[in-house]
Amino acid sequence: MVTHIVLWKLHQREDLSAVHAQLASLADRVPGIKRIVVGIPNTPDGPMADISLYTEFATWDDLQAYKVHPEHQKVVEFLKTRVAERHVSDYEI
């Protein structure tokens, strides 16, 4: 199982619901995703990130196919102007 985690800090927190909706919609639009969780942290001291994405794939090839899939690329384009910081971690479990 391959895990792909992304954390974003947004320019404006007002974009949270739109970003959440775009990320969550990937489950229905991109094949190969075994599990997807989109989270908005509830951290009292201030979150490291405004929104996070946790996804699981069966193989590294499935993750790569997801990264280049046209529906994923549409979401990437949507995020580009809204994201101030992005952190990614991919690992196999």
3D structure, described in words:
This protein is α+β, with helices and mostly antiparallel strands and 93 residues long. It has one domain (2-85): Alpha-Beta Plaits (2-Layer Sandwich). Helix content is 35%, strand content 35%. The protein has helices at 16-24, 26-29, 60-68, 70-80, and strands at residues 2-10, 33-39, 51-57, 83-92. It has a four-stranded antiparallel beta sheet with strand order 2-3-1-4. The model has no long low-confidence stretch (mean pLDDT 94).
Secondary structure layout plus pairing:
Elements: E1 2-10, H1 16-24, H2 26-29, E2 33-39, E3 51-57, H3 60-68, H4 70-80, E4 83-92
Antiparallel strand pairs: 1-3, 1-4, 2-3
Question: Secondary-structure element order, as H and E?
Answer: EHHEEHHE
Q: Using the coordinates shown, work out and report the CATH topology.
A: Alpha-Beta Plaits
- The coarse overall form would be globular
Distance N to C terminus? 5 Å
- Determine the structural class based on helices, strands and strand pairing: alpha+beta
Tell how many strands the DSSP assignment holds. 4
Number of domains: 1
Low-confidence stretches: none
What is the CATH class? Alpha Beta
- Note the beta-strand portion: 35-45%
Reported for the largest beta sheet, the result is: 4 strands, antiparallel
Q: Report the C-alpha radius of gyration, rounded.
A: 13 Å
In which order are the strands of the major sheet placed?
2-3-1-4
Provide the helix percentage.
25-40%
Mean pLDDT: 94
Number of helices: 4
